[in-house]
Amino acid sequence: MTQTQPLDHLLPDSNSVLVRGGTLVRPTGSTPGDVRIEDGRITAAGGSLEPADGEALVDATGLLVLPGLIDPQVHFREPGNEQKEDLASGSAAALAGGVAAFMEMPNTKPATTTAEAIADKFERAAGRCGADHSFFVGATAENADQLGELENSPGCAGVKIFMGSSTGNLLIPDDATLERVLRSGTRRVTVHSEDEHILQANYRAIEPGTPVTRHNHVRSVEAAVRSTTRLLDLVEKTGRRAHLLHVSTGDEIELVKERDLGDLVTVELTPNHLFLFAPECYELHGSWAQMNPPVRERRHRDALRRAAADGTATCIGSDHAPHTAEEKDRPYPQAPSGIPGVQTTLALLLTAVRDGWLQLEDIPRLCNAGPAKVYGIANKGALEPGYDGDLTLIDPSIRGPLRDDWLLSRSRANPFIGRPLAGLPVGVFVRGRLAAGREGLALAGRPLEFATSA
Ligand code: DOR
Q1: N or C: which end of the chain has fewer CB within 10 A?
Q2: Looking at ligand 1, which residue's alpha carbon is closest to its atom 7?
């Protein structure tokens, strides 16, 4: 038995598609209803719709219908490290996981730091990605003064800042350069917040034989909190909006609430920090659970779960970060940090709904409306007329363990293999086309568009 029943046989070759009989899941509630997509746009959503002549019909009886998920944080490794992942394999994994659009990070090889490098990624994606897509530009001391221009390159997602070093060589370790970056440009910047000085001191102190269970002490809570404090100070000073990626500590959640900077600061969480905790994750999965910032103790996981449920967090992004098995087998700290996740985010969130700490309606809030609002993505993020015809169809009855042969990423180092499922995506529409989660089908993904005011 395959884990999902792909809807390939329903591949509608029509400009008009009627998805009938499903349950529409919106942040405001879930209701039975049909969705019509014409020429790539939703023209009706809700109630019972009569089929029109020549319209392709998709039977969604028993299925949940969400807006096509947007994953606002993935690392697909092209150019430079295609043995870990490339844009085609990453996009195929995204679609299989119910993700209709992805936003990719700039720490490739070379890093995406120029207009040419951004354009090169779009050229590579054309005809090889079924999912719609966008690419971030990385901030460096060298390009800091050009970022205002670079962030407005066609399709660009905005500026990514690494305050602490991770995979690749992008780094803005000091406040003076960070302030220059924040004063260059107007769109919301997106930030990996760990204090480089604390990280360096802690890495220098590692003794031979130190196990991966020490990872969350090496990349300490203090490093995360210190960095986020510095960032919030500069955000307040400059008035530049910032999006905090993969927040890993309950302390930073408290900090964001205390500082109360309103829309200036938004928060993103990853499934890794929501579903794993230390030291158990390192004892069970070794370096497969190693990422930056690290997965921490249960009290942090629980605080992050509350932040996901109570609206403190705006987005969930996978931080899909594939590495080869050979690299992951190296001893700590040589094994690279990163966990693949673009295909498993939705499956995991469905288990959170089953387990009762998230509502079904939180999924489109965190995975559609959230990313669309944070980044000002045009025409996506809602199941409403006028929006792109992006739909994620979920079969909530699929059970059994999450199977490794379902995964399409080049990296199989996924610590969530074996988790008991509570439903899985079975089909994704991208602007009205059924884009099955495998290479070779419907590779007509397009660059995302952004509202200029965002
Ligand atoms: O664990 C991580 N892996 N954190 C990052 O910030 C980068 C990512 C990667 O690209 O491998």
Answers
A1: N
A2: 167
